[in-house]
Amino acid sequence: MPRTGRPRSFDQDQVVEGALELFWRRGYTATSLRDLKGELGILPGSLYAAYGDKHALFLRALQRYVDASREQAAEVAVEGPVLPRIRELLLSVLEAAQTTPGRGCMLGNTAAELLPEDQAAQQLVHGGFGALENGLEQALKAAQRSGEVRPDIDCGAQARLLLALMQGLHILARAEADPPRLTDAIDAALAALTVQHETDHSARPSR
């Protein structure tokens, strides 16, 4: 009779989720097979049989994070008032810094640790950032059509600026004793999308 093999005694979906949390918290290099065994409760042999190696499992975990980023982007781009949703997205960075301090953004963490040498990780990081940028751009275009934001802004450039702000908040919030203090930076960025700034001619020196 052909060997059917013994069914795995662990849930692969839960393993990937657990690996995501561990890699997100500690980073790729600092996470050892012993750490994975202790966190996930599976032997290295089972890990290799199911995923290939640590790097392959990391890519699976990173893919899950990218998928979540795509969902975030889609939520921002749905119909309705846009700026409150963008504000909530940015505020969620500060909230995460309080509830799960030290994690930051896994896309940014991976970029800082592994790029550009790890091309497989680079593709995933690029895809995650691209999804967020595209979601923000589409949301801003919708807001522009509805009159929620200024008609003269470049939605693509502003989407990249908001993405850069989001990543900056991840870094600053990790070092900030009071992350909500950074809320004014979020409000200032969004105010610039709705307020037409006029040049103060009175400030020019007279000739």
Number of helices: 9
Mean pLDDT: 88
- N-end to C-end Cα span: 99 Å
Query: Helix fraction?
Result: 55-70%
Tell me the major beta sheet. none
Structural class: mainly alpha
Strand element count: 0
CATH class of the largest domain: Mainly Alpha
Report the CATH topology name of the largest domain: Tetracycline Repressor, domain 2
Elements, N to C (H/E):
HHHHHHHHH
Model description:
GO terms for molecular function: DNA binding. It comes from Actinomadura rudentiformis. The protein is mainly α and 207 residues long. It is built from 9 helices and no strands. It folds into 2 domains: 58 residues, Arc Repressor Mutant, subunit A (Orthogonal Bundle); 118 residues, Tetracycline Repressor, domain 2 (Orthogonal Bundle), CATH 1.10.357. The N terminus and C terminus are likely disordered.
Architecture blueprint of SSEs:
Blueprint: H1 12-26, H2 33-40, H3 44-51, H4 54-76, H5 83-99, H6 106-114, H7 119-146, H8 155-175, H9 183-194
Helix pairs in contact: 1-2, 1-4, 4-7, 5-8, 5-9, 6-7, 7-8
Q: Which features characterize this protein?
A:
Arc Repressor Mutant, subunit A, 9 helices, 207 residues, disordered C terminus, Tetracycline Repressor, domain 2, mainly alpha
Q: How would you sum up this structure in a few lines?
A:
Residues 32-51 bind DNA. It contains 9 helices and no strands.
